[in-house]
Amino acid sequence: MSRSPSSTKGMKSQRQLKVGEEIRHILSNILIRGDLHDPDLEGISVILSEVSISPDFSNARVYFTPLGGTSPDLVKAALTRVAHAMQHELSRKLTTRRCPKLKFMQDTSFETAGRVAQLIEENRTPANRPVELDEEQKK
Question: What letters, b where the CB count within 10 A reaches 16 and e where it falls short, cover 88-100?
């Protein structure tokens, strides 16, 4: 009997994706409301870009990006300190049987994408670069 595509290693099931997105929305609302009392999180904007949940729904990695030049290490430490309070609030609003343990990770995908774009631009050959025409050539 063949395996279904969702059971192959590395692929997330539709349920995992749906629950991960639900967790992301709930945690984002908790941060927006400012219910967490941590001095390092006050006045800081944080984007929760993705929540990756384990197949047994016991662990969730929450990927975040701090805005405004805030130190990612400072934000990660603050989020880790308030993780228990976030889990408690999450367990009240989540529709699953089990509330996953939260682990916060810095999302570096934006930086990586920018770096890749920069490397591509640096390695373009002169034949591929757009040519700017002089006034005489435009006529």
Answer: ebbeeebeeeebb
